[in-house]
Amino acid sequence: MSTSTRRPTRQQSAVIERLGEAEEFVSAQDLHARLRESGAKVGLATVYRTLTGLAAAGEIDMIRTDEGEAVYRRCSTGHHHHLVCRDCGRTVEIEGPAVERWADAVAAEHGYRDVSHTLEIFGTCRSCAS
Questions:
Q1: Are 101 and 60 found together in one domain?
Q2: Which domain holds residue 99?
Q3: Residue 79 reports pLDDT greater than 80
Q4: For the domain that residue 25 is a member of, what is the CATH number?
Q5: How many CA atoms lie within 13 Å of 85's alpha carbon, on the beta-carbon side?
């Protein structure tokens, strides 16, 4: 489901709007709970379908936690990476020119072309560490 090819339903719009308010990556269940708390009548299945479709279309980012759970975040456009706090989930978008050069060099060394990559760095943010 790409929002650029079809107009989103009222429920899908609510999911997109609530996700845009989150500064951290959130699971479908957490997002669903936030929607319910705000009075939105959106089913969990709709939340899952909307997030899956948006991630497949490249409109939101999805990463997997250490436990394997998919979590989502509406990020800026363009290629970037994430620095994610293991404790609170705070997320910072980062650029990594050294990573880009390394990925290109490794791909070329092995004869690969048209490569892509993702990079998430997990740690503990300053607030959680104090």
A1: no
A2: 81-129
A3: no
A4: 1.10.10.10
A5: 14
8-17, 19-28, 43-52, 85-94 — which is least confidently predicted? Answer: 85-94
Q: What is the per-residue DSSP string for 56-122? A: HTTSSEEEE-TT--EEEE---SSS-EEEEETTT-BEEEE--HHHHHHHHHHHHHTT--S-----EEE
Residue 105 to residue 38: CA distance in whole angstroms: 48
50 and 89 belong to one structural domain: no
Q: Do the domain assignments include residue 3?
A: no
Six-digit token pair at 126? 């300053």
d(CA 130, CA 121): 20
- Give the pairing of strands 120-123 and 26-27: unpaired
Check: pTM over 0.85? Answer yes or no.
no
